[in-house]
Amino acid sequence: MRTPTAPTISGTVAGVRRRDDEGLVDIVIRRGRIVEVAEASPRAPSDLLFDASGARVSPGLIDLHCHLSGGGGAFGPVSRPQPLSADDLLRAGVTRALGCIGREAWEGAGQQMLRSVAAIEQGGVAAAMFTGGLGPLPASVLGDHSLDVALVAGVIGRKIALDDDSPTATPAELREEIVREVALARDFGRVPRFMVHLGTDMRHADAAIELLTLLPRQLRRLVVVTHLNWSRAHIGGARELHELGCHVDMTAAIRPDTFAGSYAAEEALEALLPVLRSEDRVSVSSDSNGATSHRLETGLLQVEHHPIGMLADCYQRAASRLGRRLAERVFCRNPARFLSEDPVSDDDARDDLVCAPGADAEFLLRDHESRLIAAVVPRRLLRMAGEGAGHDIG
């Protein structure tokens, strides 16, 4: 998901706190990678990238379900947000994002998403996309989802919709499609991921459970099932899906004040606490499609603000309700593990350590109230608050 040849930042982020029980340290960055983490000390102004003044380091949010090119919009065109930029994502604390196509059935929707991915990567945020989408004609880039997954740089996998508006392939048919697409992609040295999008009816979750049951066990961890906070029954289905070995995802876009009977993501996570405390395959994404932030005015549906901010808000609520370390695990580390080269590996980084020498410079700086101060990615550092807010540094 990273552009290796892009210009990168160098310098020192001084005076940060990695852990609550640790003194202040300096993080030295060279060409977009962390080369040293040392006890804080005076630095020459020419070497200083940013003075964090005791801010806490936290991992960047990773959004597995984001409508980067706009689109989506369950309430029609008026509820569709504008395309996202790298700045939009960084201001929400998102340092990696996967683009999803919704009901954009027009010709060229797949190519439009791919252009959005490329623009966001140029802006310094790691991005990729799922081919496929919702509706009777799920979008693609090359006209064939299997070829998209195997051949197109920037396509990480395929989105499969299980709802009333999309093609009605049976779980057995979908199982064969996934097995074929994985085999073809591996011929080209790729390991694809699959997003299973659930509709509001519990029978859609039942179909996902049947699909996962039919899949070979080694392929189940390549699957993320999303929209599992539609209802209490869906949350129960999340437990069963998790036991089958896939990754389960709640979306910040689903809230009780918008969809009757649904659960906010942090409430759904609380219901899944026994799973969260022992396993890693649970996350929260934005589903930034405009369906969450709307009101009726003069007979028209009006979007109040871009829903990407809802992921940042949801992180804050989850951190307050469930604790910061658990929130970081769900919003940052778990999706990173799903995207890793070897998602089946049991190896895991220490939960309380964010930055280490040799790693990419990809982290957030937060104040003592967890408010975002700056976002650091290999290509840039974007400051959020105070003098120079909104400007790149370095």
Describe what you observe in this structure:
This protein has 394 residues and is of the alpha/beta class. The protein folds into two domains: 11-58 and 354-393, Urease, subunit C, domain 1, CATH 2.30.40.10; 61-339, Alpha-Beta Barrel (TIM Barrel), CATH 3.20.20. It has eleven helices and 19 strands. An eight-stranded parallel beta sheet has the order 6-7-8-9-10-11-12-13. Strands 5-16-17-18-19 form a five-stranded antiparallel beta sheet. Helix 5 (202-214) runs parallel beside helix 7 (232-244), helix 8 (265-271) runs parallel beside helix 10 (308-322) and helix 10 (308-322) crosses helix 11 (324-339). It is globular, with a radius of gyration of 20 Å. The two termini are 23 Å apart. The model is unreliable at 290-305, 342-352 and 387-391 (pLDDT under 50).
CATH class of the largest domain: Alpha Beta
Oligomeric state as shown:
single chain
Question: What is the CA-CA span between the terminal residues?
Answer: 23 Å
Strand count, sense and closure of the main sheet?
A: 8 strands, parallel
Helix content: 25-40%
The average pLDDT score comes to 85
Number of helices: 11
**Count of domain modules:** 2
Protein name: Amidohydrolase-related domain-containing protein
InterPro entries: Metal-dep_hydrolase_composite (IPR011059), Metal_Hydrolase (IPR032466)
Task: Report a brief summary of the structure.
This protein is α/β, with parallel strands linked by helices. It has helices spanning 86-91, 109-122, 145-151, 171-187, 202-214, 217-220, 232-244, 265-271, 273-276, 308-322, 324-339; strands at 11-16, 25-30, 33-39, 48-51, 56-58, 61-66, 94-99, 126-132, 155-162, 193-198, 223-226, 247-251, 282-285, 294-297, 300-303, 363-366, 372-377, 380-383, 392-393. β14 and β15 (300-303) form a beta hairpin.
